[in-house]
């Protein structure tokens, strides 16, 4: 007779597993990737491919030669990091920059801590932020829009890249993101030191960048920030599949709207309006896909809401008062650090008062 | 000028804080018997809990407060105990050094696996679920709970036999493994003169036929060893023989007598070709240093 | 539709044997009747080798308050009193009886007539139930008479009959509800009388609509105005005692407290039927309804088995163990016990033989916890299994206690739902046992 298996109950398992969850996240990111490819063609596809490939390879190599453990790439988490990193980078990022990002994301932010589930900070965001502070010009002024520039987008041609970087104002195919533009223009002063621009003036001068239709579907930004609708689609998919709960995302968005709304009501000349804040930059990408990363977000609803509020507040603070035009990445990373503390929130007890020793 | 000011202010600040620290340290100083520190310094510092106290400092506190009594540090052994006694100006009795002994020899080839355990691989989990994945309900489960608790790296599961092996040079007889083993097969026994001991390497209380069916190396409770023992050191209870190490004179008659090879001898000199009673007198036998730690001299019956 | 609010999971239903009517299993040639068939002290054999016994004769007497007598399930000669191994290989004393014929004790009413008038008084009822060795058949086999004698500090207000059968595969309670509905209703009346309450709820999950309709109808027709059938949502562990009370009357059992502290006394459907038979038919508990099922099982059956029938005989009767069965479980797949000794005899509480294939049941390799919080979400007791697991790994007993590990009901939701296949419950069970031991050793204030 065959030897029987003996184990403790339960004897069956649900359908969920890590790989399937990661696959769901990848599926949810597909619309954003497709939109990116629609606008930038093979350049975007190349970006995603290089990023995913380098993340997976870095994880594989570290696992095999440094940690000498079993290969962990089968759980697809490296692929998720790869896609997210790609979506957080400007489309024409040179391959070496993507590679550095991947090594930082997987090698430093993830594997150093012991691999999947052990890291404190979102790997893709760490990758992005390290690139942002290391290569600020490449990272902020080389975001593209406009399909007609496809021909010009030869990502490997160094000369062209340099030309683009040198002429960030050539709006036809490159240019600052709306947030960067606002920040830059608002900071301008005349000889006496008085501010010369107001938000309204900036918006009026750059109609293409600030019309809501363009913000919703095609705006300047990194690869994944192009379309708000694509991101929303992915978010809804994750909710339907019960991969994530909406608490984090919604509390971030709500906080940003309320906080920036208060500032805007107080001084509409100085501060941008809440809808603009909601739809621009990496907020949606961050709120839907980066902040909701299981590993680096709190476990239960109470903690998740506080986490979201924190991200929202810090994002608006950085955007309106900080040195950088965009603050979502920093906000999420800062709040990542508070997660162990937020996990001290405990679920409401099933019954009765606390047991006394 | 600025530099001088900076340095000066930092120095002043440092001094101020130092004074604050000093005052606080004085104010909240806990009065303690200074001998506790002395004793604690003598202790090995393993904090293993082998003495029954929470750690070495707790041992020191107890020793200073209530005297040594039954307290014994298995890690430091008699040497440490003597030092502690000297420090406290009291006397202490010498104790026989002990070592952990695994009373199971149901290695993989002797004890067939009859079911597949699936789940968390710790002995305690298996033991709480069922008898174990072999037909022997008393034997080693081989998942290494003992290895996990041993702070000294003295006990390790041998992947070949699936049984734990004790490195007697490292073993301090702290007793952690004896408590961790859910089957209670690990016992602290006197190390014996020159590390020589004879013990029954089986814990099965099953009837002979059942035990034998489950494991080729099982003690079947036949009682032959008890009959042959000239010192009355062996008792058979619940189908299991037990050698009282305080009575055993290590004549090794039982080892030869055991039909299943369940009685093991350790660190014994090689047996003369013809069995002579000379071996019964370990004092005259040539001391043989064990070549390797825990190197068991294989007896004919135990030849694997 | 009612349900408990916190946690829970949705395993696939798989009630494959739901339409198989209850059959009587042949009487075993040799019955091995264990003395440890209930929670608490095992019974003591009160027959000697060579004695002739009849069906229903007491062969083991209770040895304490939390204990139950054991009765013979066959007639014949006591062959020996020996140690037998239960399905997990743990030994217990058993009376081995060689069957001769099928002669029942006088006084047991074997007719099918339904006796609805309850003649005995409150105290007598509890005594009768105790004498007949009735124990809870929902899994824990807690002696029913003890549950019917609540401590003086508690005042029972209602009886809840657990017909949720939330475990996948199992159908024995469902079949009892369908085939013996009137008896169950009378059983409810007996329980109400024994407790001195006048409200009874029968909680049934929505996937057993037929049973819900039938009992609702009969409760009206047969004049049981105090019995209310409650439709419950299909969610595991709906049939957990604490969850059921929460779902039906909206009260929560206090931590470390008794269910009766909420006023509710929960009894299983099988138990209720056994109570009916004990009180109205004078039949002690020596048989039970069990399911033989599984996706790979050769037969899908519901049986009335005599206690003491070796499991392998039942398996052979159903065509033997299927080739692709990798694990055999007694009980449901969420809380049942894996069988390692297929020769073990059935007990009062044996509710099923369930075959699972390797694909269904083999645990996948443990991965890293991804801190998804799904275990916290699934835990019906609002615990944090991931944290308990981590704390157990470092043996932090104080923290484990502070995180209410003793509240765990071992339902298995955490392990069921964990996407990384972390053996959460394996560890939590160990941790709980250790913490409970420490708590018990503490002097009471």
Concise account of the structure shown:
The complex is a heterotrimer of chains A (357), B (304) and C (445). Chain B is α+β, with helices and mostly antiparallel strands and 304 residues long.
Features:
heterotrimer, A: 357 residues, mainly alpha, B: 304 residues, alpha+beta, 3-methyladenine DNA Glycosylase II, Chain A, domain 3, 2 domains, two-stranded antiparallel sheet, elongated, disordered C terminus
Tell me the layout of helices and strands.
The complex is a heterotrimer of chains A (357), B (304) and C (445).
Chain A: E1 4-6, H1 18-40, H2 42-66, H3 77-87, H4 95-110, H5 123-134, H6 136-141, H7 158-166, H8 178-187, H9 199-205, H10 207-210, H11 212-217, H12 228-240, H13 247-266, H14 274-279, H15 283-290, H16 301-321, H17 328-336, H18 339-342
Chain B: H1 2-27, H2 34-42, H3 56-66, H4 77-88, E1 98-102, E2 115-117, H5 123-129, H6 145-149, E3 155-158, E4 163-166, H7 176-180, E5 186-190, E6 197-200, H8 208-214, H9 224-228, E7 234-237, E8 240-243, H10 253-257, E9 263-266
Antiparallel strand pairs in B: 1-5, 3-4, 6-9, 7-8
Chain C: E1 22-24, E2 30-34, E3 44-45, E4 52-53, E5 58-61, E6 70-71, E7 76-85, E8 91-99, H1 122-131, H2 144-147, E9 158-163, H3 172-179, H4 181-195, E10 200-205, H5 209-221, E11 227-232, H6 241-249, E12 264-268, H7 269-281, E13 287-293, E14 301-306, H8 311-317, E15 325-330, E16 337-338, E17 352-357, H9 358-361, H10 374-378, H11 385-393, H12 397-402, H13 413-417, H14 424-441
Helix pairs in contact in C: 1-4, 4-7, 11-14
